[in-house]
Structures
1.
Amino acid sequence: MSPVAHSAVGLLGWQKFSGEKNLKTLLIFILIANLPDIDFTFYLFLGEKALNLHQYFTHNIFFVVITAIVCWPVFKSKTARYGILLVAFSHLLLDYFTIDMVDPKGFRLFYPFSSRVFNFGIFPNLLKDNWAEVFSFYNLLVIGLETALFALPVFLVYRKEFAGYLKEKELWKI
């Protein structure tokens, strides 16, 4: 999935679980929802030889649990802490249902204890082999689909709350 779907789930998690509605907690929920894809930045610097690193070290239960726990001190309530853990796990769930085009297809859920890969791809994946693919019409369609299936429903269900947050000065405090 792209950052659109992961961010939408982070936004939903923030709305449902965070008692503190401010920019800092919102950014943490969205960051945690996207963090396992930090390994893709290696591709930007190392090129194709780094593609086999994507989903290797950061797409497993140990990484998501550790990153969620690192963020726990920011949140006062247990609800927010468990919410951040659920949002972290959501990344793995969404990627499980995304078509993986790079071998090995899937991610190592129990790495470093197992190298077994998991994937049940039904959602299209973004093309990323070169800049032409990144900015392709196909990718625009994929992002449109993710927006329609993930972001739009969140915004529609919570439109009154989000409109209220935008007006409040508290949201913009970090």
2.
Amino acid sequence: MSEEYRLDRPTALTCPECGGALARQKDGTLLQFRCHIGHVPSAETMLAAQFDVLEAKLAACLVALKERAELCREMSEAVRAQGRDSVSLDAAGAEALERAKLLKELLEKEWTETGRGYVRQRKGFVSVPQP
């Protein structure tokens, strides 16, 4: 191994812009990350972007669960119209709705705000405190 080789602490974070792997970088006291494409978000920007990605993925899961419930309902109606048993479809639909309800409650709860105010200030937005 060359003298220039350095074993960095691996990071399991991905770039919020492109989804690529990130490497941790320190520039003085500033913690930032660099992806293989060249995006360089600061830790604060990463925290805010990660929250936005998390919220979007949870919302997509909610949509998928509601679609599953609707598909199960439609299939159950079709199966019953043919005189067949629809118990498993009814159970799967009810399960999807139950899980969607839990996910909706999670999405509606307040989150600890970290990083978002920082990014809003940098983009010219004013963060208004919630009561």
3.
Amino acid sequence: MEKVIFIYGFTGTDRDSNVAKKVLDNYNLICFEYNSDLKQSLEKIAEELDSFIVSKTGKKEKVNLIGASAGGIIAEYYAKFVSPKKVDKLATICSPFKGSYVPIFYSKERRGLKELFYNSEFLKKLNSRKLNKNKTINFYSYLDVLVPGNSGKAENSHHTWDVFHFTIQNDKKILKKIKEFFDRK
């Protein structure tokens, strides 16, 4: 059974992957659990993701990734800079590719969170590389209160009318589209 790694976002937990596990029932969906307070750099978290994936897979085995919010940024960084050959396909849900205002409300000690602010050097680096559009799918909402407008829009993007950021990752329509995307060979 093919593996899908789910990466939740800021303040997320493994419970955030429960609906995805039900919808993507033909995959072995494994949640990457990490310290989601984002005090460490996103690059460091992506390196932890690499160790996690290596521990769960064979040497030449590829995985599909689903990243929600900051988890999508971590997943995309992983796919572009850390281990591109390990990723078959990538799905992101309401991830702040162009930034978010949320970091201004939190302590400056949260380095990873600061990297999600508009025009950060980290996001500039992330957006400097592109993925093959057949390898990635992206869902965003103009109405998302935490990742507003086009901030969540990336390659091969699809708009959703969901407005509440913390529940978009549980939208069964989105998850079914991700499943269909992963099923295409």
4.
Amino acid sequence: MNEQDHVKLAKAALAAINAHDIDAYLKNIDDKYVGESETLGKVHGRDGARQMMTTMFQAFPDLHIEAEQIIASGNFVISRAVVTGTHKGAFAGVPATNKKVTWHSCNVVEVKNGKAISSRLYADNVSLMRQLGVLPVPKAAAG
């Protein structure tokens, strides 16, 4: 696969997520896949990826990811995106708040033989947790 194929793979994964089609999403995941993020911890294999997506869709039933940029280099593809959803179920220990939230993320995925073998999700969890009411919003310093 070349870099353009990796970009197509990332776009297909995002389309599957936005369609809430877990089976289509899993077609792009290798059996030995390992994913990492702060909020969901380590994810192992297709079963782990299925559980991760199920958790996300339960927490944010209207979850949507809009790619701002997708870049491929060698065996890696990086997706920078804006994530939106309504918090209707528990997520990262936070019970449902019914708040609409928006946060930014960046996912770095390693691809081998046309499938994701590893990924590292970097997300603006501070912004997310502030919108959920878990973290205070700092006050501007008086000048």
